[in-house]
TrEMBL record:
SUPFAM superfamilies recorded: Acyl-CoA N-acyltransferases (Nat)
Residues of the N-acetyltransferase domain: 1-144
Protein's name according to its UniProt entry: [Ribosomal protein bS18]-alanine N-acetyltransferase
Disulfide bond keyword on record: no
Pfam families the UniProt entry points to: Acetyltransf_1
Family the entry assigns: Belongs to the acetyltransferase family. RimI subfamily.
Places the protein is found: Cytoplasm
Superkingdom as given in the UniProt entry: Bacteria
Physiological role: Acetylates the N-terminal alanine of ribosomal protein bS18.
Reactions this protein catalyses: N-terminal L-alanyl-[ribosomal protein bS18] + acetyl-CoA = N-terminal N(alpha)-acetyl-L-alanyl-[ribosomal protein bS18] + CoA + H(+)
PANTHER family: ACYL-COA N-ACYLTRANSFERASES (NAT) SUPERFAMILY PROTEIN (PTHR47542)
GO CC annotation terms, alphabetical: cytoplasm
EC number(s) stated in the UniProt entry for this protein: 2.3.1.266
Species in which this protein is naturally found: Lentilactobacillus kosonis
Length: 147
């Protein structure tokens, strides 16, 4: 058993109104792929309060953020900012060229966070999200130009 999965799902339920965009099986599959996945979790007093995951494409040098969530009681304290920047830093250390992600069109708060970090818009995926067919905004950051 991978011990963080129940806590990750709990954060997703809290953030996404009782829903979990990914289920136990999806997270288990992700976390078993140790060569091309990277997950970071933040804990406070042994409670998981935030996480971020990404897939690593060594051929295209793309670090793709697949999910990120911060428990509601810990939002607005810079944890999401910290996690995204930690992934960007790790991708640079691994000599990747870009970091990419999708974000719901309605999630303007997350879009603002990503833009503040240095991501730029990179097109729209129409009907991307399975449950409600909401569009996704593609965003990317070219990390070859960072100092």
């Amino acid at each position: 058993m991978i011990p963080d999965i129940p806590e990750i799902l709990g954060i997703e339920r809290a953030v996404y109104g009782g829903q979990t965009p990914w289920d136990d099986r999806a997270f288990r599959s992700e976390l078993m792929r140790k060569n091309d996945r990277l997950y970071l979790v933040l804990r406070r007093n042994d409670w998981l309060v935030a996480f971020i995951g990404c897939s690593l494409n060594f051929k295209t040098k793309d670090c793709h953020i697949t999910n990120v969530a911060v428990a509601p009681n810990f939002q607005n304290h810079g944890l999401g900012y910290f996690l995204v920047n930690a992934i960007v830093k790790k991708a640079r250390q691994m000599e990747f060229e870009k970091v990419t992600l999708e974000v719901r069109m309605s999630n303007t708060r997350a879009q603002r966070l990503y833009r503040n970090i240095g991501f730029v818009d990179d097109g729209i995926n129409k009907g991307y999200y399975f449950n409600d067919r909401e569009d996704a905004l593609n965003m990317k950051m070219d990390i070859t130009k960072l100092g």
